Amino acid sequence: MILNIGSGEDTSLWYHHWVGDSPIYKIPNIRIPDSKAHWRVSHIIKNSTWDLSQINHLLPNYLCNLILATPLSSITTRTDSLRWTLDKSGSFSIKSAYHSSYVPKNMNCTIQICWKKLWKIGVPFKYKMLLWNLCHSILPVADILARKVPGLDPICVRCFESVENHLHLFRDCHSSSTLWSMIFQFQGQSFDLEYNLFYSKNWDEWITYNLSGSSQWKIIFCIAIWHIWSYRNKAVFYSKMGNSSSFYNKFWVDYKCTNNMGQMDKEMQCLKKERRWLVLQ
Ligand SMILES: [Zn+2]
Question: Residue limits of the Reverse transcriptase zinc-binding domain (predicted)?
Answer without folding.
Answer: 92-180
